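Q: Can I see a sequence and its folded structure?
A: Here is a first one.
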Amino acid sequence: MGYKLHNRIEIWKKLLLDFGKRNRLINFLEGKRNNVKITAPSFDSLWEFIVVNEREIIFPYAKKIQVNDEGEDEYETIIKGDIETNRPIGDLQKTLKALRYKANTSIEEQGINTLYLTFGMLKWKERDDSSQVFSSPIILVPVKLLIESILSPYRLVLHDDEIVINPTLSHKLNNDFGIVMPEFDSAHDSPSEYLEKLFHKVENKGWNIEKCTHLTNLSFLKINMYKDLERNEEKLNSNIVIAALAGEQDPIQVSGELNNFDHDKLIRPIDTFQVVDADSSQQDAILLSKKGVSFVLQGPPGTGKSQTITNIISEAIADGKKVLFVSEKMAALQVVYNRLANVGLADFCLTLHSHKAKKKDILRDLANSINIDHIRVRDEALTQLDLLERKRNLLNKYQEELHTPTSGLNVSIYSVNGKLAKLENVPDVVFSISDVDTVTTDILNERIYLLNEFSKTIGKRSEDYSSNVWRNSSIKFLSNALRQEIDSNVAVAIPLIKALVEQHSLICSKLGIKLELSLNGIDNLVSILSFAGKSPSIPIEWIIGGNIDVLIDKARRYKEEVEQIVETTNELKSKFCDSFFDYDAVKHKENLCSLMLQLQTRIKGDNNWISQNISKINRELITITSEINSLFEEAESIALKLGIPTPNTIAQIALFYQSVQALADVHNVHPTQKWFNSDELVRIKSNIEVHKSLHSSALELKDSILSRFDKEILEWDFYPVLQRFRGEYTSFFRFLNGKYREDVKHLNSYLSKGEKLSYNDALEVLNMLKRISDNQASITANTQYYSENYGDYYSGVNTQWNVLSCDIDKFENSVHHLHTLTSRLQNLIVQGELPISDIMLFNAHYSTFDIESAFEQLRSMLKCDSDETDQWNEIKIYAQESSSLATAFISEFQDLINKRKTYCNYESAITDLDLLISLNTLNEDLVQQQDSIYSLYKDYYNGVETDWKKLINALEYAVELKNFVTRYNLPEPFVKDICGNNSFISYCYDEYQKISKQKDAVQKSITWFASLFNNGEEFYQYNILDLAARMSLCKNKKYLLEEWVDYCSNREKCNKAGLEEYLNKVEEFGVDSNYIVDSYLKRFYWLWLDAVLPNFPEVQNFRGRIQSQTINEFCERDKGQFKIAQARVRERVLSRIPDFNSINGARDEIAVLKKELNKQKRLMPLRKLFMAIPNLVTSLRPCFMMSPLSVSVFLEAQSYNFDLVIFDEASQVHTEDAIGAIMRGKQIIIVGDTKQLPPTSFFSTSLNDEDFDVDSDEAIEDNDAGAYESILDEAVSILPERSLRWHYRSRHEALIAFSNIKIYNAQLITFPSSTESAPDCGVEYVYVKDGVYDRGGKKNNIIEARKVADLVFDHFRKYPNRSLGVVTFSEAQQSAIDVAIRQKRLQNPCFDKYFIEEKEEPFFIKNLENVQGDERDTIIFSIGYAKDNKGVMYMNFGPLSREGGYRRLNVAITRAKYNVKLIGSIMPTDIDLDKVSSEGVKMLRSYIEFAQQGIAALEKELTFNNYLEFDSPFEEAVYDFLQNKGYHVVTQVGCSGFRIDMAVKHPTQSGKFAIGIECDGATYHSARTARERDRLRQTILEDMGWNIYRIWSTDWIKDPKSEEVKLIRAIERALGDSLTESDRNDDVVDENNKANTSIPVITIEEKIEPPKAQDAGYGFELYKRAYPLKRIDERGYIRKEYDIAWNIIFVEQPIHFEELCRRMAPVYGRQKATSIVRDNVRYIFRNHLQEKIIEDKDGFIRIKDFKDVKVRIPNPDDDYLRPMAYICNEELALAMKTIVQHSFGITPNDLFIVTAREFGFKRTRENIINSLQIVYRQMIENNVFSEVDGKVKIN
């Protein structure tokens, strides 16, 4: 822990403890109104009465009460009651009233019950020599005072809190004096006995104890907060928020992506669980809460803090989070609880406000949680959320598209709509604008400027431009030189034109053709003459008939064919000898291609590779096929001899080889027929050791006897002697028996050495003989059995058992490798008649020839799908056929290569054959076409010697001649002359030379003249004579050229700007110059819309009627989603509540709760209960609602870790009071308002109710600020902030306007009032002219108090359904008003119903310090302070004068929904601003002025003005329309950031707006969500009395006339329906709130039937063993040992090695896991399963990559029980984790017991517990588990 945090914690702890002299728990001083001493009944009787019997006590009271003129109560007819006190009746009533008020206030404001009945008083001194004696109460009995009505007696009843010993005194005595106060059990100990015990502990100090009883207010519970911090320093250290508060950590930041969050785009309705409405600022806060961010939520008055907290809680508990909602104020908790209750979530909230909770009530609530019916949200409800999202997206898309700047102009559609609305009456001109969507603002402004200039120019013209001879002139400036040039050129051109006309007419007549008399016509004549003069001699047939293009194409083709023949012949001669040209190319190509095609289907490789390698391939095919085939022939021979199937495939011959190899290994083994039976063989192998032992024992015994005796002893009949030794000779006196001596002597006679036997030796020898005899008898009896089993191996005691065992193993191993075992083969093996020489030869051949590689080589050459399993005979045939094809191809290909000069590959050979075939074809074709070619080209064709170029040129001339004929319509004689008349051709050439010169002379002048015009090329089409006439006019009218130049200059600029078409239309339709610009803009904007709207489909397809329908559907579904969310939250939370019918653990928290629920008495204290079931109680009730004190009292810090802690009304909470709750949360939300009340002790009892009235403001500041730093003030410096902005409370904007502007910098979104002024609405000032402040006496204003009382009763008469509250500046004025109202109540008892405390919003009288969090319809605010009776006005206003006083004023003036009545006996000018420095006092003066003058008092501070303002041209157009219709329209209505676009004032009802008109402009677009834009705003406005009409700009622009009619109709309807605001507030049913029948009503949820009681269980699998374990499977095949082992591991993994060996023992003929079994299993691991399995360090076996470990418990149908050592740690860990998951707060020891029982261990012995503890510790170390307060928790 850092030193900063350590120091800070110490400071907090000191602030929480109070051992000073002013603490009445230490120094109990009896004040005027702070206690009542009870004198009767006696000390013990009173205890018995109220504590033991829990009876209520009635205080003395009067039946009749009157209030005198001084406000004092006068009592008559006093009733004694149950007790006597030390106070007279009047004083008693006042004191009881004060005690009750303070007790109730402390509960409401801080969650502390402070009213106690004290029993006993300790009289003590701090030092022995001190004269000051302190009195400290000892036993504290919590009580409460009740009163039903003003005339009822006060009743004292026992409170639900626990009876305690004064904890502050106990701490003081222990710390300072080392005295530990005795424990006290109120259920069993009497107070007198306890005081006696205490006295014995303190009497040596000289202290005394007094038996007395007092009723008083005491507060000691903060000592729990102290202990909370003291015990949990580690938890404090780990909390990042607390670390930041202490300066140990940097302030917490929020991710930038969460700022300006687009909720509609990024959050779907299906992902939200908000149960009440939320605006965007509230959604910002909810978003941070969902993201796990700790932050400060600033909630100015009326902005929906409780609403936001409700949604935060619902989102959190839906997400499975545990929530702690903390507030000192009961009202704050209650309002959130009520909201949650209204949406059906109260069942998940646990309210513990201080010690208010009853144990039985809490248990009943928890029991109810268990029994709540589970539900399921229906799919139809979820579908509604999808439909909501779709509707929301449509609405958002429309407004987004409407207001998105786009195209080159970078303006929105809405902006353009506004411009069009202003241009509605401008003339329409239709023209096109190609670049409309790319035009920028600069370009458009340039066009507007140019059009303005153009409109000025056209007004100055002398005649119309269309008749100006200089029209289309390109001259920019008319100089003098140009004037001269015009005159000169026109004079020269006129005579030349006349001469040219004469020559043109002459030639046309001679040639018989007709051409127009223009410059173009003359050019055509020149072209004809030139072409005719160059004519060659061509056949006329080419022109008259036939297709010239076909002739040309054929000529070119014939030319190419001849050239190709020559080229191909030369190429082939270079490659082949001459004989090749006689070669049958077609036949040989077909042969080669056919063979190659067949080879390609059989042999791998491309054509060239095959042709190059075919010889090698063929050789290998023959060799490999032959070798393999020889092996198959040998195998067939052996198979016939063995009587087994002949192998036919490569795979089969491999198996065949294994079989004959095994036969080679076993040919020296001599088995019996029984060895071939696997069961018999297992039996034989298992019996060998037994039989070996028997035979060895017999041999050993015989050898042992013969080592001492002669062999004849074995033939001796010893048995009678043995019987006598066992019977007769057992006595000690046997040596006296002669028979005994005889028998011994006979036995000694067989000794080979001369020794003698004792009795014991003789008996031992006889017994050995008996064993030898028995063994031999057994062997003899079973000789046939041994022979049948062991065959030739058996030779009695001389049998070589090791050889037998070895040969059996060899036999068994060999038999395993036999793929088939026939009876014939079996007999051959038994009889030893195997053809071993053949077998050995085959094995040698097979081992030297790698058949598999050879076969693979064969497969690699051949294209076939065969593999080792295909028939060899088929493969052999296929290979032989392939070889035959290869041989044929080699012969054919070699024949071709022999005719070639050099070698080539296959592809080249085929190409050469194709060339030869092509050459032969060309030669044949040319010979056949020779006659037809001559007929086409006449003399131009000369066979191979033909000049093809000359021929083609002649044909091309013919083509051009035909074109001339068509173009100029030349006559047929003219054409014939050109084809063959040489004189005609010469004439044409000569005339061409003459007229060309004339034309050039004229054209020079005309070209110069044409260059003066933009359309000069048109002059060439003019009749030459007309052109000459125009040239003359231009020469004579040069003044028209000047006008044209000016026009063209402006027109050219416009044309360059893209305005040419428009100006053409302007000129065409004669548009007035005044409309030229506007008409262009109107058309431009319409075309702009057409261009951009396809990119904005929602606007393009917009229909107002459909939009309204969409909005209605959205609104209904948006409101409906909250009910769906409510059901979804319930569904989720209920799904997490444990099913008590299926819970398994009998030792967890559920068991604790069940036990408590079944108790009738001696219930567990709540703190202890909550410590015992922390996990369960938070599962049942995931939201705790508590005061900071109750958190420390009830919740053990280590047991309760909340995901989210919400602190409400945090501005009034000291930091040290909040830390205990904060440290219990991962995420913290501090909710409050830094502009509202700070923490204060201004009216605390420790200050003895002093009023702090002084003469100057400065003196107050020097004395005591009265305000302390709150957790909110500290949190804003280290946590990110979110602020709520929408103000909902005020039904008149004036109620919040002052605070919004003065305190919140106009940041709140408030809504304008539909009525500017109305009685009892908004803010008003009631001046009490004769009010006097009693400065020197009671410090109140009685006259003003009476005025307040009058207003209270007037209010209830006028507005009985409106709630009411009174706020004062001081407690003195609060009391004065209470007395005044009390007096009127006594006079008017019929009004008592308005003062009932149990109402939802009861009447209250509060001072500034405790009114925060309350709201009422009407607030009466009494200033109280005024001039004193001397007329002196002091500048002290109590708490308002302190630092932060303006915050107190802010709270007071923002409590009302409809009306604030400020009551004062001063005028604003009475507050001298020169004498005050307090912001609070200055603001009070401003507020009085505001109450008198209204919003005009704030005009200087408004961020807007009331002048005519428009949000856009569209609103201006609508405004102009309404003004023209005669309506009084006001724009931008409102005094905050939100304003109504415009409103129509009612013509007859003053101050009343008839209708509000909203467009879809900036205000509409500024809403962050569709909900705000399309529902919330309008709903709030309509609730405030507005009639709102929406204009859709898109519809207005498309059809303004219809929309205008609709608007007028709506205004007229509104004018007829208008009501006053007061009427509306009290008596109007909002039609918009009626159900929309277009949205079908659906059933949101359905009840889920609770599951039937199930047997206890955790879903563990039953242990499954691998079966069967027989060596022989059902098909008679011998199963391999490794297959059996693999099967066991596969089924039972992870399995311990020892357990696996035990399971494998029967396979080896064993009953248990012997060393032999272990060795064999290890052998299997090494040789067969090495790469497949793994063995861990604990000896558990599993298949590699196996991870799916499951818990397996004993199967009741199987008696198998795994020892604990054979259960792997993973399985144990998983079992424990599963049990913890299904339990609620199980202890480690109980976890071990439950786990052991699940694995079948009824008794938990030490070894079992130890094993589980080892696993448990590993899980703790691996952070899987942790322990919290002795409970196991999954991390």
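Q: Show me another, different protein.
A: A second, unrelated one:
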Amino acid sequence: PGETVAADLNGDGAPDVFQSGDLLVRYENDGAGSLTPHPLVYRTVFDVDTADVDGDDDLDVVAATASLNVEDTDGDGNDEYAEAEQVLWFENEGTGELSRPKPLIVSKHPIQHVTSTDLDGDGQDEIFAASEVKSADFNGDGRRERSEGEVVGKVVTLHEYDGTATMTNQTLGIFRENTNPVVLKDIATGDIDGNGEIDPVVLFWEWGASWYKNEGGKSFASEKKIVDSGFGSNVFDLDGDGTPGIFVYQPNSSDPYPDPYLGWYEADGSGNFPLQKEMPISAAQVVFGDLNENGQVDLVTVTNGGITWSRNDGQENFSTRTVADQATGPLSLADVDGDGDSDVLGAKRDLFINDENVNGDVFAWYENRGLRIPAPPTSPTAQMVAPQRVPRGVEEVQLDWSASTATDVQEYAIYRETRLPLDSTRGPYSFDFAAIDTISASQTSYQDTDPLLQADTTYRYRITAIDDIQNESSFSGEVMATPRAPLSVHTVRPESGAPGTVLRIRGSSFSTNPSAHTVTIGGVEAPVDSAKETVVYARVPAESQLPDDVEGPAEVTLETEGQTLSLPGAYTVVRGGSETFTASGADITPVESERAATDWADYDNDGDLDLAVAGENKDRDRSTTLYRNDDGSLTPIDAGLTDISGSAAWGDHNGDGRLDLLLTGFSGTEANVFLYQNERDGRFEKVLESEGRKEDGTGVTGIYGEGGWGDYDGDGDPDLFVTGVEEGDVGLKSAQLYRNEEEAIFRWGSPTRSERFLPEKLFDNNAEARRLDWGDYNSDGLVDVVVAARLGVTVFRNEGDGTFKEIEVGDTFPDPFDVAKWGDYDNDGDLDIAAAGSGDTGPVTKIFENKGNGTFEAIGANVTSVKDEASLDWGDFDGDGDLDLVVAGQENDSGSRTNFITKIFRNDGGGAFTDIDAGLKGVESASVDFGDYDNDGDLDLLVTGNQEDPYEPVARLYRNEPPVASSSAVITGGGTFDFDGTGVVLEISGVSNFGDVTVQQFDSRTQDTTGVVGALASTDRFIMSPGDANFESVQVNVALSALGPLSNPEDVVLHKRPNTGRGTFQALRTHLDENGTPGDISDDTLYASVDSFSEFVLAVDSDSSPVSRSILLSEGWNMVGMPVESGGASSKSLGAALPEGCGSRFRWRRPSRQAEAPGRFANRGERPPLRAPRYRTRRRL
């Protein structure tokens, strides 16, 4: 078919249809939708239109044709053939009957298109005709150019009937053919520039559209190109502003066309036609009409896919429905069946008639069976309900509404948005909105169980009604809902620390009121400092509050909002430690590789740390081994884990209270990610294996690298972040973020408030992201990520909306790094970073201080630089309350396999770190990991990697051992103990019938003499354990004669601190027990009374009397820093640092009344001095 036009020629309300093509056919309409064809011309007809040619107030028919039979021009009774192209006129005789065709326009050029309009408002239509020309004066020189037998251009002319069966005409424009033929598509009319005059617009195939401005009096300006590409489609005033728009279909330049659109161009008043809007509609032909009678103009279009209806939501946003798939144009709209709505006229493809295939398209019309929209539902409400997902998930949204009043509603559609309100005036027909679900009309409630719901995000909901022929109502009113994550806990960081260490208990939906939470560690209440919605900050209880059995992995509980949430074995309380590390002899599989990994965790919740080890042995065979800790003995078990070289990370992915194991790396010939679920009975079930991303965005891609757990979206379950080299592409270095949605389902991508979880590379700069660590560096309650990579260390700040932003750190992290870990080394409450790797000038190890303003600064710590798959770990090995650092790797950059080291650096405060010379096995391709595997209250150390000679993997588990006493004695009922070779004598009295006193001597120095200015750390330590004895107060006595020549007792100062091995010393008030000889102090005694047992240090302001001795007397202490509670009382110690050869007496006074509880040192306050002091201490050393 060529063109289709419908018109009611006889005024009966039933339009007839005229269609051109291989012939001109009139389809007579009986008023009920039955169309009877009547051929009018048995020749090719290019175009057809209706027009009041003669001005008699009824519509005639005009048709463009060629070489047709015409009337008997010579009166011989025979019709002659015309040799010219013609526009035929079928005059309406007033009753709808048409006369025989009359030649209205005669041309030597083929007339392809005709269209009519009343330009001057005289009631008589003018006709525009477009013809192909084989010769024309294209350059205006008065001569016609010609191409033999070929079309060289197009010409548009204007014609008007003068009442004598002839037409006046004028030429509007001539279009010269260039390389490609100019194909005229149609001629449309409208007041394009809003000047009140009707203008013609010529629509082309591929060459866009041209405009001829009507300057009045049927005088036209020269051609102006509106759009110079695309398929001209139509002219229509879509937005009702009085100025028609020109619609041009512009397919993408590629084939097939992935993103075609219908361009809407409109005059801007200055003679230009800017693009108003790109409508994502395929439309080689478009017609306009209100098909659903909602007062908005819709679009009906035709493309290769058939005929579609694009519904207008009132804001010129369109949703598309298919009218007919095996259909094509030409298109037109008319109420064929007289039911008051517009039907669609077009053509059906490849019809069979009488069992014969018709080669071409056949006219067809498509009945509008009632596109009137039903009434929308009303009064929607929303409330939060407990999630259906088990065991955890954000709250779900329960919607309820009142039913639509329409009787033919079949279902309801649910719409949800986060970006902006779902404005009810727009309806659901915009491309911005898509229903999340539909339900039967028998229901008026809906529960949104979508796992994509995010905690603390506001969602906007509206509902529509859909009838039995898929007509959809406008939106209901809007209702909003903000789901919360369930109350949960899942992580404690750090994993170990001494009393006073700040814990970050991570979870979801916490009250921000600290008093709403009660935290316990090992059953002992811990003070809560502050709280955010995703983290509670608490402190490890003081040493005096901790019972003896709080050692090893202790349970952390959080009581809040009437619930008790627990994490078994989540925290190791460090009760002490030493600088002595002894190989335990544990049989652990030696491993190394670029991705060797070890991770301590209490997977069986039995109160001790178990171990996962993954890597390659000396034969390059991969292995993954799980060791169960049986009271300090590590036993390998057959857990059915895949052997890999990569990483191992414990995390409770499903919130069942049992730690699951994530493995990433090479398992043979390809990279993989495996998740093994802890099944409680010692079995591990593989619930996730990398199979690539699925169409719905779920699924995990194989990575040769490292994986880590962190709840980045705050919904109460740990999400997954993996770094390394992607499977199948060894050149693609990346980091991928996966959201934990439900049981072993992870979705790839980083969501924002306005987007679903689109696949997105969080970190992809071909830098090979190596290691990662989660931590909240800016204390905003959101976990951030630090990534070590070949191009440096990158910190990603969690923005709280599912996105991460690289923070501005300047040149802080310029070097390549193998590993980076968070740790608060300076105890200022924010997380710092330690990193190691191969710098531009060789090995590098750096500590970066968090400045609190989003930047980090290297502190210049004296820590050995290492490279070659370096490893490091933070841990308080000596129990002094600050984080120390262990590093392992190759120390030099010679390229040879030498200078492998593993060193522990003691944190001495103020950014100073000291190598303790622990004598550990040096390794590269290393993994080092602190953990208290023997439950003795101090951190042990696991070291794996390649040793130097022979170059092969080794594994060493070092036990943090207390020093062995060089001598000891038990004093019953008081007495004297002479420390051989030291000159120290202890005289103890007042302990009879109260228990034994054990005295031990150690050849190791007292640690941390902060506050004792200028004092030398002693080389000997003395510990006294008085068992169940009770004491009321203690008097410390020092014989000054043993201190050497002193002229002033003010040069001698006793210092005290409340806890052994940690804290700051403070000077005590001292008194002089004179011998009675004025000016002679050699036989005098300096003493001080104290009200509790603690650690004491003596400082002497004399070059000849350096401080070199200390004595510690401790109730219930087996060793320094290793408290053993006696009867539940506080553990205390007493000591004095004395010079070489010094003698001293410690006088213990019995209490005047019974102590408050057996086995305790009762604090009765300071005793008054025996006599008034003669001197007061002024100098503190």
